[in-house]
Amino acid sequence: MANSELIQIIRAEIGANGPISFARFMELTLYHPKYGYYASGRARIGRRGDFFTNVSVGPLFGKLLAAQFVEIWEKLGRPGDFEIVEQGAHDGLFAADALSALRQSAGDCFAATSYCIVEPFPIWRERQQKNLHEFAEKTSWVASIDEIAPFVGIHFSNELFDSLPVHLIVSGGVANGATVWNEKFVSEHRLSACAPSGVELRCHSTPFTFVTAKVSDRDLLLYHLGLFPAGFETEVNLAAPKLMSEIATKLSRGLILTIDYGFPRKEFYSLRRSQGSLQVRAKQKKLSSPFQQIGLADISAHVEWTSLAEAAQSSGARSISFTDQHHFLTGIISKFFPDTDFDVSEKRALQTLLHPEMLGRNFQVLALGKKFHEMLSGFQFARDPGVALGI
């Protein structure tokens, strides 16, 4: 099953312009304003959804992050105009959980806080507003990061960068001491030769296929990834560093805090990861091809963390810390909840958030500061970020 209208739109673009980059295919599949998986509101999270994330465990994740937000506010000098900007907020439940925790346990910080959600799609904005109705005086929305005035506070995201469109590149081998990179493009499957004359018959189970040609964007060649044998495949995300630079530019003073899954550059582009990290998911199952369930499935790729840190640095921010989620949340708990008797549901949530074989090691946390040099409790068990990121 797939979205037939979206397939026709993609076919029309290929018919008009020739094969398209996978980044463009991913952009249409996920973000077409009417039929895209995210833009249409079809994206479902949780145990009954297409994928599971931190917010799916319940309000505890927001409660733990709220404690870290308060510490950031205090280390900024308790500003009276403290802004939290969230991007990739899905249905707004994290914002509701965090604001509820601030209201309950940190009244002064709550009074100083305003919460802005960057949300380009109306259907998600409506859902967020519904879930945040009791915080109407605290919340606001913009369609893009460009619309935000420079602010003091926090930019927060959970699984934002992994969903940005990626280019797929493949090694053609090594020549003259350098890897020859080609790019995988999306083309339409031609009518099969097995079709009888005059009969519109397709013998393929998917409407599109990959073709390989020279890279589409010269910026892809700026990545000096090393020497790789023919057939080595990986992704390059040009959109993620660009967005990070835009975020860092808008932050006057404070912290960018992003949680996602990925690897520093050296590990991301290692020989043992020769098939890349592209994932296609629907109903908690991995699909074998991005050309299955088009418009009805999530497509993502692991984050290459080093490029995000470098992009932020180019816009005036610096790496504060980088660690896995297990150590980050353990640091928060040991500082702010050392004697807390968590209830049964919270203990189950903690197991999911912290266990190395669940979300604890699969997710990482990157903190980037602008005019902010303080160490945070969530990173008390972290290594030096420069060493960890290879910067």
Topology:
Blueprint lengths: L3 H14 L2 E2 H10 L28 H16 L6 E6 L5 H13 L1 H6 E6 L3 H10 L7 E4 L8 E8 L8 E9 L2 E11 L19 E6 L19 E4 L2 H12 E10 L1 E2 L1 H4 L10 E4 L2 E2 L11 E3 L2 E2 H10 L3 E7 H12 L7 H11 L9 E7 L14 H5 L2
Parallel strand pairs: 2-3, 2-5, 3-4, 5-10, 11-15
Antiparallel strand pairs: 1-7, 6-7, 6-9, 7-8, 10-17, 12-13, 12-14, 16-17
Helix pairs in contact: 3-4, 3-10, 7-9
Brief write-up:
By secondary structure, the chain is of the alpha/beta class.
Strand content: 15-25%
Oligomer: single chain
CATH topology of the largest domain: Rossmann fold
What level of helicity do the residues show? 25-40%
Secondary-structure element order, as H and E?
A: HEHHEHHEHEEEEEEHEEHEEEEHEHHEH
Question: What is the overall number of helices?
Answer: 12
What global shape is seen?
globular
Which CATH architecture of the largest domain would you pick? 3-Layer(aba) Sandwich
Strand line-up across the major sheet: 4-3-2-5-10-17-16
Give average pLDDT, whole number: 91
Class by SSE composition: alpha/beta
Radius of gyration: 22 Å
Report on this model:
The protein is an alpha/beta fold and 391 residues long. It folds into 2 domains: 1-36 and 167-191 and 204-236 and 265-295, no CATH class; 54-163 and 243-261 and 302-389, Rossmann fold, CATH 3.40.50.12710. Helices cover 31% and strands 24% of the residues. It contains 12 helices and 17 strands. It has helices at residues 4-17, 22-31, 60-75, 93-105, 107-112, 122-131, 239-250, 265-268, 305-314, 325-336, 344-354, 385-389; strands at 20-21, 82-87, 113-118, 139-142, 151-158, 167-175, 178-188, 208-213, 233-236, 251-260, 262-263, 279-282, 285-286, 298-300, 303-304, 318-324, 364-370. It has a 7-stranded mixed sheet with strand order 4-3-2-5-10-17-16, sandwiched between helices. Strands 1, 6, 7, 8 and 9 form a 5-stranded antiparallel sheet that branches. The protein has a 3-stranded antiparallel sheet with strand order 13-12-14. Strand 3 (113-118), helix 6 and strand 4 (139-142) form a beta-alpha-beta unit. The radius of gyration is 22 Å and the shape is globular. It starts with a helix and ends with a helix. Residues 192-203 have low confidence and may be disordered.
